[in-house]
Amino acid sequence: MGFHTPPNIIRTFKFIYTAFHIWTVIIAFEESGTFAGIATLVLPILGEIYWFFAMMGENWLYVIVSIIVNIISLLLYAIHDSESVPRG
Fold first, then answer.
1. Count of CB atoms situated within 10 Å of the CB of 11
2. Cβ–Cβ contacts within 10 Å for residue 10, how many?
3. How far apart are CA 50 and CA 37, in angstroms?
4. Distances from the Cα of 17 to the Cαs of 23, 24, 69, 80, in angstroms?
5. What pLDDT does residue 1 have?
6. What is the reported pTM?
7. Which phi and psi angles does 30 have, rounded to 5°?
8. SS3 label, residue 63
9. Which of 3-12, 41-50, 59-68 is predicted with the least confidence, judged by mean pLDDT?
10. Contact in structure between 37 and 29 (CB atoms under 8 Å)
């Protein structure tokens, strides 16, 4: 027996993470213009890492939400990944 992640939790978190990414793209457009916004949109991981550090000292709410969302994301990935490993 192991811990099984309910699909509703995964779906809900995907929605939350998508909303967070849209917030990141909006920040990129407002702070640096069209090119940065498009780059952040198509390169989500790199964009979120960049804007995490760029917003330190400017937008602490974004930084705190980024930490929380990314920790939850890593935990859900680890749980989901361990569920897919075949057990003998």
1. 10
2. 13
3. 12
4. 10, 10, 7, 16
5. 46
6. 0.83
7. -70, -40
8. helix
9. 3-12
10. yes
